[in-house]
Amino acid sequence: MDCIFCKIVKGEIPCAKLYEDKNVLSFLDIGPINKGHALVIPKKHYVTIIDTPDDVLKDLVTATKKVTKAVKLATGVEGVNNLLNNGKASGQAVFHAHMHIIPRFEGDDFKFPWPAKKYGAGEMEEMRKNIVKLI
């Protein structure tokens, strides 16, 4: 497998490690949106949140919370984005599940909020039904 995150977990590529436990690893992003931008990854290779077992997701979210708190305090920011992209269309560039911790500064050039759209008449209820029957 030629996954850069798997190589980081194996120690084949160095990282600026922030946190590690049996299931997850956190390190600073080498191409940060803002200084302090960190990633939290499962140590085993899973492509998206859908592929990741629930127990590993629990550890991923728990570690994300811990690292987010530390990043927020270390950077002095008032806001932080926690993002997990799933699939190329969502912006996922490394196909190993990972959570971004992005410190946010007022006026930085990372664009949020996203452009919200609206449902047409009856579309929201139809979408709700289609999703609920698959849960």
How does this model look, in words?
The protein is an alpha+beta fold and 135 residues long. It has one domain (4-132): 2-Layer Sandwich (HIT family, subunit A). It has three helices and five strands, in the order αβββαββα. A five-stranded antiparallel β-sheet has the order 1-2-3-5-4, with helices on one face. The chain is globular.
How do the strands and helices of this protein lay out in sequence?
Elements: H1 4-9, E1 17-20, E2 24-28, E3 38-42, H2 54-75, E4 79-83, E5 99-104, H3 123-132
Antiparallel strand pairs: 1-2, 2-3, 3-5, 4-5
Unreliable spans are: none
SSE series: HEEEHEEH
CATH superfamily: HIT-like
Envelope shape: globular
List how many beta strands DSSP finds: 5
Radius of gyration: 17 Å
**CATH level-3 fold name:** HIT family, subunit A
Oligomer: single chain
Mean pLDDT: 94
What is the strand arrangement across the widest sheet?
Answer: 1-2-3-5-4
Class from helix and strand fractions: alpha+beta
